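Weekly sync, protein design subgroup
Attendees: M.S., D.O., the rotation student, P.L. (late)

Item 1: inverse folding check
M.S. brought a backbone from last month's batch and wanted to see whether the design step gives back something sensible before we order anything. D.O. pointed out we never logged the input encoding, so this time it goes straight into the notes. Structure tokens as presented (179 positions):
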């Protein structure tokens, strides 16, 4: 058995789950999340937990077993607690601000960068150099954070750019003057 796949997913208070048309639906305080489940996987919903079973020990079913359980766990956590990724902006004059539903960033280019916030995602600019991306879908939160980071990735010489909170960037030595 898969070590991840065999563990049941606990359902916290305030979260309702059910199966609908081959999809797992979780409803909670942060909204509704629908996660499609592979037709080979059998999802069993108990009183306080959800478990996933696989039909055989084929390699494909073993892979799908752990994946399906993790997707269900992320769905349940997303509607109860949500997911958050924080981004740091480093560099002289680099900053971000929120104007309506658009994130406006000055990242050292000759123009400002405007990023339209997708539906289901909340962006909060805690300080001009710290952005918090949150939502109920782990995949969507990670995708939006990666798109924002791609506008100006951290460079290895001065460390300027947008990075994940706590991310370390290895610094390189610059050129040295010749004789």
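Designed sequence read out in the meeting:
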């Amino acid at each position: 058995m898969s070590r991840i796949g065999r563990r049941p997913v606990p359902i916290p208070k305030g979260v309702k789950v059910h199966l609908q048309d081959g999809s797992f639906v979780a409803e909670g305080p942060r909204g509704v999340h629908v996660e499609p489940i592979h037709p080979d996987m059998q999802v069993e919903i108990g009183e306080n937990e959800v478990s996933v079973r696989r039909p055989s020990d084929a390699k494909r079913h073993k892979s799908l077993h752990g994946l399906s359980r993790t997707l269900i766990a992320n769905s349940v956590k997303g509607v109860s607690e949500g997911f958050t990724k924080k981004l740091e902006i480093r560099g002289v004059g680099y900053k971000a601000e929120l104007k309506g539903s658009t994130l406006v960033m000055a990242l050292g280019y000759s123009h400002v960068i405007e990023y339209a916030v997708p539906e289901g995602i909340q962006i909060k600019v805690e300080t001009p150099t710290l952005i918090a991306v949150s939502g109920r879908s782990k995949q969507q939160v990670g995708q939006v954070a990666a798109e924002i980071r791609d506008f100006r990735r951290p460079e290895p010489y001065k460390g300027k750019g947008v990075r994940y909170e706590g991310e370390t960037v290895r610094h390189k030595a610059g050129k040295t003057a010749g004789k």
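Discussion: The mean pLDDT is 92. The CA atoms of residues 35 and 71 lie 7 Å apart.
Action: P.L. to compare against the previous round before Friday.
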